[in-house]
Design goal:
By secondary structure, the chain is mainly alpha-helical. 51% of the residues lie in helices and 3% in strands. It is globular, with a radius of gyration of 23 Å. Mean pLDDT is 84; it is low at 294-317.
Amino acid sequence: MSGHGFTSAFAAQLDAYLEFKQSMGFYGASRTWYLQQFDAWCAGRDRAVFDQATVEEWVAARLESPGRYRSWMSYIRDFGRWLQATGHPGAYVLSDRWKASFVPPRPYLLTRREIDGFFTAAAALDTSSPWRWQAAAFFTLMHSCGLRTGEARALKTAHVDLDYEDIDIVWSKGNRGRRLPVTPQVADVLARCDKESRARFPGRVNFFVSGTGNQVTGATVASVFARIWDEAGLARPLAGRQPVPYAFRHHFAYACIERWRIQGKDVHAMLPYLSRYMGHASFDSTYYYIHTSPGFLDAYDGITRASQDLLPEVGFG
């Protein structure tokens, strides 16, 4: 029996592949789970050759299951590449024709009034949990640095350098780690949060912590966001797109593009910088924000002010 429960003719190779991925910092459980499904499928059909027929037949069978996401295809495609690179030139690499088309997100477009109201309420959040002093800092990072929710949750104290005013996003989505500079204002917000957390949770590992000192959960972030939104007295649409924490990341991208437009810069030439800063896998994700910019400009209240700062001037004291 393999270390991951594989039983097919590919068991040893699948184990070795996962060990290689883990050595590179990839520990996701979903990769292991889908490869276990592939392994079981092959074992039940006595498949012993990693060829086009085997791989595509399994993929076709999986596509008959409910669900519109195809991210799992990248695991079997990557396994094929790894086999080729480790002495199995005949291994099949799943063709790109199986890739799902890019489906852009449909963001909730935050207005300036909503952003100001949200951060004012976040600074005054009345709770016994650490969110009382860390809510403003957490959502400031999402808003002013364009972080994903998971990136902010996973941030370690060792990855925040307040002296040099930068943060390290390590092992992010797709393993695209990056170092991000922050403004002095953002660094000040982080410093105040860090000071309070150090006093209450000495030796903590995560920058943002739960009441027990552990990493905060995605569900908690969503709950805190909703509470702040409601306490700010901000309305919720009766239908359609709803405000969520990820809206701050969208706002960051749009605000950068609009600021460059106002400054007369070549937005397309600046996109590689934005793509790298946000940790996008490809320019498809970054170009999306340009394609939707006209609607964005109409929807935003006062965003064309040339003097607009990415971080709202509200009281974080």
